Amino acid sequence: MKKQHVLTLTFILFSILALLLTFYLPTFYSPNRVDLPLYDAHKVDERQAREPMLDEQQRQDGNVVAEVQPRYDDSLVLELIAKYGNRIDEIAVQASLFEVQEYLLSRYPADGQARFRRIISMAFPQLANAILAVVERMGLYNDWLIENYALLVDMNPLAREGALWQKRRAFFGADAEKIWADELALQAQKQQSMQEAMYQLEQAADISLDERLYQLQSAITENYGETVQQLVVSPGMVAQVFFGFGSVQDTLQRLSPEQRQAEINRLRKQLGYSDEQIGRLQERDEVRNQRWDNGHAYMAQRKQLVDGVDGVALDEALAVLREQFFKHEASTIAQEEASGFFRYQRPRVFGRN
User: Which of 18-22, 265-269, 313-317, 333-337 has the lowest mean pLDDT?
Assistant: First the structure.
């Protein structure tokens, strides 16, 4: 039962880790390509290669330009129909056309907006107004991202994610989940992959602590890339997950206290802790060891009292016992026990509590 409890806590901790890893992507907020839900957006290089090239003399000739631009617009209309015609009623596809607008504005500052509206009206006349309205809102969202870029980067991952989704829903309502469906699906896929890796690591027999830690770190890197090295939760959150494995605890419990602490210190070193941090953590471990030893001794004597005394005499004896073992914390322990919670019946998780 205790082992199952530890495993459950480990999966909860991993879920938090997965969220943080997924959301903490500094390049994701780059204003050069800001947070766009692109499906099959046109590649600028390919589009430029297809666009007729004009020399300076031809550009000065208004007749040549007037002849070339409609040809290119017609070509783009056909391309949009071919690429998006079967799915243009999807809000996410409509939103992705924002990048087509941005390309046209960058290439034709004077009339790019008018050309985009004309192209959309020609390609999708039935839905042109709806598409243009969606693209306009995507532009406002894009402007908000750029204006708040520095603020977003400084936020912690969960706060940033909350701010993003609040703004997305403000602009798009329930359609936000459809527009950013690929992002949500990728997040779910990564979490599922990591949960499978964790289950396999928990079930794997006869592998060393080093190999188990290496496989956990490899699974994180494989799913989330080198970004994990930049996280403020690393190595702390990874350590929480690793030490939560029942198999890791089984190994640590078989060691003497001195050997166990040495092994925990060594593993923390591999996780990326500095020598100074390891020293501070060892001091915390030693305090925790004393508290657990004291708590287990209390529980043993408490059981003897419960088995041999009852009624008011038991209440009085337990009060004296709590005072003996816990001093100023005795009242807190009494309140916990009155609610049915016994903190020293919880599983001891070395390296964590």
Answer: 18-22
Give me 90's structure tokens: 């999807």
Long-range contacts of 21-28 (CB under 8 A, 24+ apart): 21/190, 21/220, 21/223, 21/224, 21/227, 21/228, 21/231, 22/186, 22/187, 22/190, 22/191, 22/224, 23/157, 23/158, 23/160, 23/161, 24/157, 24/227, 24/230, 24/231, 25/227, 26/153, 26/227, 26/230
As a residue count, the chain comes to 353
At 177-234, the pLDDT tens digits run 999 998 888 877 777 777 777 777 777 777 888 888 878 877 777 776 645 444 444 5
Q: Which two tokens stand for residue 347?
A: 């599983």
The number of CA neighbours under 13 Å toward the Cβ of 23 is 22
Torsion of CA 217, 220, 222, 228, to 10 degrees: -100
Task: Indicate the pTM of the whole model.
Answer: 0.54
Phi, psi angles (nearest 5°) of residue 86: -80, -15
Q: How far apart are CA 111 and CA 138, in angstroms?
A: 20
Angstrom distances, CA of residue 176 to CA of 23, 96, 172, 173, 343: 17, 13, 5, 6, 44
